[in-house]
Amino acid sequence: MKALTWQGKRKLSVETVPDPTLQQDTDAIIEVTSTGICGSDLHLYEVLGPFMTEGDVIGHEPMGRVVEAGSASGLTVGDRVVVPFTISCGSCWMCQRGLFSQCETTQVKDFGSGAQLFGYSKLYGSVPGAQAQFLRVPHADFGPVKVGEELPDHRYLFLSDVLPTAWQAVAYADVKEGETLAVYGLGPIGQMCARIGRHLGARVFGIDPVVERRNMAARHGIEVFDGGEDTADEIRDATQGRGPDAVVDAVGMEAHGSPVGKFAHDVAGLLPDAIAEPFMQNAGVDRLAALHSSIDLVRRGGTISLSGVYGGTASPMPLLTMFDKQIQLRMGQCNVRSWIDDLLPLVEDSADPLGLNDFVTHRMPLSQAPEAYDMFQEKEDGCVKVVLDPTAG
Fold first, then answer.
1. What CATH class has 163-331?
2. How many CB atoms within 10 Å of residue 154?
């Protein structure tokens, strides 16, 4: 089969790799009909290279049809399914408490990490990813979400990651109807955080330097700002001088305006993997501009929710300010299955309340995936969300 493989920092290629096979009776094999490029995929492309191996198949936002089903998978050949990016058993102590991203059956204990993820480095199990023609799905008796036949892929695909990640971020922000929410970063996750916040009745401020992202958010009732030096004051002026009740940081470790973190990223990229890996595990390598701006902007007694991915273990934090402002901070890898029952009715609603028909900016064949990554990384051609089609061509 054809699959997108990691070959080095900023180097990807579509290669022929072995077809996946059933390994357990709870496995399934799906033919992938759509698979998204996620903002966190760019961390593999750029920052987390020391944890990658040449030839790794990447990607973690798939949907498709079952072509082989293990005897205990609960699936049938032909089922149309969305596959969550987290691999969870559904029955362990953590899963019983809805903490599917901490699944004790699939935890990657060698790195002290939570549940395995598709296509996301040694840190999360080196499980072959979903930007491929076919995908082996472990624990298919629990993970995959069966969906209907009537709607196109783009109405269901984002149940794999974007929608539940954004829903959890807003839930963790604990913003209530009539309150105010700011979202730093209007990439795919930030777009949906902003729309979900507004859907739940909040007044939402979206912050991003890229005009196309601001324009997309504005079409969905979001008040947008470019993140310039006046942005924080403008949002405070709109919130009785206090700042918003909650802030979602949907940017993560590669925030603009973080020169020290950028230098650390560049240094790690120049080191041999044997040296870079422990450096990444023990250093403060995050670019923290968005997080520090969130701490500054949120009102006293407010809440910050992190959905952007951070990777540093010694990143400096302004604890005096956080303590003085009585800030609540929530974060974590998304527990996808916890939110599907909330999201599926919205996805299938003919009114399209989350604007899924205005989200995908580029649909490209798998063969053009390397070019798609370049475009997404450089934010060219109005690129907000890319979906790859492994069945094309």
1. alpha beta
2. 18
- Residue of 123, 133, 223, 134 whose CA lies nearest to 182: 223
> Are 141 and 26 within 8 A, CB to CB?
yes
Report percent pLDDT > 70 for the chain.
90
Average pLDDT across the chain, whole number? 91
Question: Encoding tokens for residue 106?
Answer: 């699939």
CATH number for the 2-161+335-389 domain, one of 3.20.20.70, 3.90.180.10, 3.30.428.10, 1.10.510.10? 3.90.180.10
CA–CA separation, 383 and 18 (whole Å): 32
pLDDT digits (tens, 9 = 90+) for 78-123: 999 999 999 999 999 999 999 999 999 999 999 999 999 999 999 9
pLDDT digits (tens, 9 = 90+) for 143-193: 999 999 999 999 999 999 999 999 999 999 999 999 999 999 999 999 999
Measured CA to CA in angstroms, residue 122 lies from 32, 110, 128, 263 at distances of: 23, 9, 11, 24
Assess whether pLDDT exceeds 90 at residue 23. Answer: yes
> CB count, 10 Å around CB of 260?
15
pLDDT in tens, 122-133: 999 999 999 999
Beta-carbon contacts of residue 345 (< 8 Å; ≥ 6 apart): none
